[in-house]
Structures are given as C-alpha cells and as structure tokens.
Amino acid sequence: MGIPTPHISAKTGDFAKTVLMPGDPLRAKFVAETYLEDPVLVNPVRGINGYTGTYQGKKVSVMASGMGMPSIGIYSYELFNYYDVDNIIRIGTAGSMHPDLKIRDVAFGMGACTNSSFGSQFELPGTYAPICSFELLKKAVETAEAMEDVNYKVGNFLSSDTFYDDSMGTMKWAKMGVLCVEMEAAALYMTAARTGKNALAICTISDSIVTGEATTAQERQTSFHNMMKIALEIA
C-alpha cells in the first residue's frame, strides 16, 4: 500500500516530522487555528482533519485520531509507515484515578497498561509493556517545569477499550499506581515501537473518578492550553 492511504488523502511531504494527535477533530482544528501560522488542511477524509503549519518557525502537523485504540492504531500506523512521520504526540483527555491528580492537571504517560487485545497481533510469548519515548518525555517534563502554574504527574496510564465499564473495575488499577484512564496511548506506543518511531501521550485531566468532578465537552475541545503548549514546544 502506498499513498494516499485508505484513511489519509495527503500527499508526500504534507505532514511534518512531528504530528500532534488529539482524539477530537475539532480540537485538531482549534490547535491549528490558534497556534499554527498558515495552517493548511492536508487531510479531510472521514472528518479526521489533519493540518500542517509552522509554530515558532518549525513545521508542525496536527491531526485527530478519533476515539479508541483501533482508530489511533490505524492513523499512527499510516503516518509512521507511509508519511515518514517520526514523532506522534497524543494530546488527549483522561480520567484521574489518583487523589493528587486534579481537574486540568497534566499527566505524562511513561507507560500504558491496557485491557485491550491490541498487542496480540504481535504474537509475543508473554505480556508486552508499552512505554513512551524517553527523549520526548524528558523534553516535555523540562518544558512543564519551565512554565508557570502547570501541575503535572508522570506515570502509568490505563488505556481502556471500554468507556462505559459494566464491571466497574477501572479503579482496581489505581492500587498498582496507575494515574489515569484514557483510550489510546497503549496502541500508539505499541505502533511506535513496532515501527521504530517515537510517541508520547500528554493528557489533561478532564474528569476525576476519585471526586466525580468533570469538565464540559466544550472545555475539553478548546481550553486545555497547557497540554497544547507543551506539545508544541517539544515538536
């Protein structure tokens, strides 16, 4: 398979080496229009909009992943394998499972546990532990340290296949030190590992399983600026 792919209509060279990847197409549009100079829509297929522009003189792309591991698995695979992308930085939302991780705090996923069978395709004789790019993580933490009023934690994520969990078992992961739950990081990290590329998930806490607090859909789309700024600085 070459380009265009079944899911991306962009041409060779349309994407930067680093792609910021929110789940929400409207967040991708917001990042492009708010932070990028001269953003160009390079992919409109299925409404998963991808844009390329410049940020402080650097060529940067931002494209949505959609929801869940199958979706980010498709887009990250195609970007890494066919569009010569080296780095994907997920900028998403997560639900806190840690009492010290509050609404609007930022979490960096050093690793990603999962209840998904996504990794079974690799036919490994054991359990694979997906981790991020240390280089990207180091830069992200240094950037967060230099910014004012950024509360963050680094640790393990849970990438879940279920948003509505009938077993109500999500908090069981907290006793093992897992910080928060989201739906994409593990698949992104596995795809990056398989392709020899780099990935990092940066998530803003949008709701807390501990306290029951939550933000609105509009707030999630347009107001999580610290996460966006960190990702852009390290792109």
UniProtKB/TrEMBL annotation:
Nucleoside phosphorylase domain location: 18-221
Binding sites annotated in the UniProt record for a purine D-ribonucleoside: H7, E182, M183, E184, S206, D207
Keywords, sorted A to Z: Glycosyltransferase, Transferase
Residues with site note (Important for catalytic activity): R220
Gene Ontology molecular-function annotations: purine-nucleoside phosphorylase activity; uridine phosphorylase activity
Enzyme Commission number(s) from the entry: 2.4.2.1
Enzyme class per UniProt: transferase
UniProt GO BP: purine nucleoside metabolic process; uridine catabolic process
Binding site for phosphate: G23, R27, R46, R90, I91, G92, T93
Catalytic activity: a purine 2'-deoxy-D-ribonucleoside + phosphate = a purine nucleobase + 2-deoxy-alpha-D-ribose 1-phosphate; a purine D-ribonucleoside + phosphate = a purine nucleobase + alpha-D-ribose 1-phosphate; uridine + phosphate = alpha-D-ribose 1-phosphate + uracil
Catalytic residues of the enzyme: D207
Record bears the keyword rRNA processing: no
Keyword Glycosyltransferase: yes
Summary of the function given for this chain in its UniProt record: Catalyzes the reversible phosphorolytic breakdown of the N-glycosidic bond in the beta-(deoxy)ribonucleoside molecules, with the formation of the corresponding free purine bases and pentose-1-phosphate.
NCBIfam families hit by this protein: deoD, PRK05819.1
UniProt similarity note: Belongs to the PNP/UDP phosphorylase family.
PANTHER family in the record: FI09636P-RELATED, URIDINE PHOSPHORYLASE
Quaternary assembly: Homohexamer; trimer of homodimers.
Protein name: Purine nucleoside phosphorylase DeoD-type
